[in-house]
Amino acid sequence: MDFHDTPEEEAFRSELRAWLGEHGDVTVPDDPAARADAQNAWHQELHRAGYIGLSFPTEIGGKGRSPIYDAILNEELGRAGTPPTEGIGHLTNALALFGTEEQRRDLLPGLMSGQVRWCQGFSEPEAGSDLAGLRTRAVEDEVDGESVFRVTGRKIWTSFGAVADWCFLLCRTDADAGKHAGLSVLLVPMSTPGVQVRPIVNAARNKEFSEVVFDDAVVPVANLLGERGQGWAIANQLLAYERGPSDINWISRLLVQLRRLESDVREGVIPDTPTTRARLGQVYAELRALQVTVQRSLSKRVRGVLPGPEGSVDKLLMARADQTFGHAVMDLSPGETLRTEGLDWDLYVWSRAATIYGGTAQIQRTIVAQRVLGLPRR
Ligand SMILES: Cc1cc2nc3c(=O)[nH]c(=O)nc-3n(C[C@H](O)[C@H](O)[C@H](O)COP(=O)(O)OP(=O)(O)OC[C@H]3O[C@@H](n4cnc5c(N)ncnc54)[C@H](O)[C@@H]3O)c2cc1C
């Protein structure tokens, strides 16, 4: 592995830094309710400037560059302290890989520009880790001569459900097929009659999550993504794509915050004790280990290897580094700066979710054991 920029990458990085110098005076708002919209507005601005979809194929409106360019973008945004881009990589890849020509043409431009927003309807009250046990059903019918699915069920913890225009819905289209074989993906407009969104306020004080209820919502069969029964394969491919360049953004953000803690120590805001040094050292070591692991995964992607179960290793290290950092901030900050509201507190609370979202740490360890290391199931 070579961690240095090539001359072309270096040129891109300096051009991006110059652009951020002019346009990047955008910070994550302290008001939790404003964060999703601020992130979306920033995503749209980056899209107008040509920075979204750097590594997506040109046929779908991307720039056809190596994933390294997305990593550079994410790293620089983290360093500049702007909001991150919206996490569209996994949905874009799923639509590009499994979508029909019409679906790609109609849906990809809005997804990439941020003008059309999406949510992911996978988890249910009785199906989280055991995702294949989901019960939301889609039954085929005919309405006014058109083939449709009638969708009924409940999704929960749907991020951005309240602001989304479309839902990437994993549902059961065949009740008699096996647990995994009966699943399909439907692309559902959130404005469909029978779709109801009930926002949930989380511990970081925002309504990022929702419960989404489908009550006999009628969805054209043309909105099926891929084949009927291909839902499990699509969901797995999509989850593997959730990792990657966007992790770089988080690492870069945490490294900036670590520098802030270090300067608090230098300025005497945090006492300079052996314990402080050991805690900061631990955070740094975990972040560097994560950075190198993510760079290794990226190198594979650059060589054209599709992301696979190894992404679970990145996810585990990511969650650990994030939580180690959060604990260090809470433990080292003196009483008056330890806040129970505001961005720092929200970031700390958010780090607690890192071992849950995108598949819990226990499930990731099982994936690593069985699918990466090939250990026996019993
Ligand atoms: C911030 C955040 C954002 C999210 N966004 C979305 C989203 O946009 N869309 C979406 O569909 N979902 C989303 N989720 C839901 C997330 O995917 C689920 O919470 C997660 O998969 C766990 O499912 P669960 O909550 O039902 O917990 P459960 O599956 O009930 O697990 C409870 C506990 O039991 C453990 N456990 C369960 N099964 C096993 C097993 N076989 N072996 C060992 N331990 C096990 C788990 O590790 C966990 O500790 C989000 C969650 C969070 C926290």
What does this structure look like?
There is one protein chain. This protein is α+β, with helices and mostly antiparallel strands and 378 residues long. The chain folds into three domains: 7-86, Orthogonal Bundle (Butyryl-Coa Dehydrogenase, subunit A, domain 1), CATH 1.10.540.10; 118-229, Butyryl-CoA Dehydrogenase, subunit A, domain 2, CATH 2.40.110.10; 243-372, Butyryl-CoA Dehydrogenase, subunit A, domain 3, CATH 1.20.140.10. The protein is 47% helix and 15% strand. It contains eleven helices and eight strands. It has helices at residues 7-23, 32-48, 67-80, 89-98, 101-113, 231-241, 245-266, 274-302, 311-332, 343-352, 361-372; strands at residues 118-121, 137-143, 146-155, 166-172, 183-189, 195-200, 209-220, 224-225. The strands form two sheets. It has a four-stranded mixed beta sheet. The protein has a four-stranded antiparallel beta sheet with strand order 2-3-7-6, with no helix packed on it. A hairpin with an 8-residue loop joins β6 (195-200) and β7 (209-220). α1 (7-23) packs parallel to α3 (67-80) and α9 packs across α10. The longest helix has 29 residues, at 274-302. The chain is globular and about 75 Å long. Flavin-adenine dinucleotide (FAD) binds at residues 119-123, 128-129, 157-159, 353, 356-357, 359-360, 362-363, 366.
